[in-house]
Amino acid sequence: MATTSIRLDQELVEKATIMAKALNRTPPKQIEHWAKIGEIMEDNPDLPYEFVKQAIIARAEKEAGKLEDYDFG
User: Which Pfam families match (predicted)?
Assistant: First the structure.
């Protein structure tokens, strides 16, 4: 993955550092996470945050091979 250096507000970086530590991420990964959520929310303004959060979790579970088939009958 290519990376690019950008300037960010120090307060944002400090908040990301705190959240990253709490969630076992690096500060850059925390900011990427926030950016991903922001992008999804802007693309889908009618979706509630909790739905978006669960969709991100479901995608990660799928990529990890942790989903099971559901029997509707």
Answer: ParD_like
| Domain tally, the chain | 1
Domain ranges, residue 31: 8-62
The pTM assigned to this predicted structure is 0.77
- CB count within 10 Å of CB 51 equals 12
Q: Which pLDDT score is estimated for 2? A: 84
Task: Name the H helices within the chain.
Answer: 10-22, 27-43, 49-63
Judge contact between 30 and 19, C-beta under 8 A. Answer: yes
Instruction: Report if residue 57 sits inside a domain.
Output: yes
Q: Is residue 3 part of a domain?
A: no
Is residue 44 a contact partner of residue 52, using CB atoms and an 8 Å limit?
A: yes
Structural domain contains residue 42 = yes
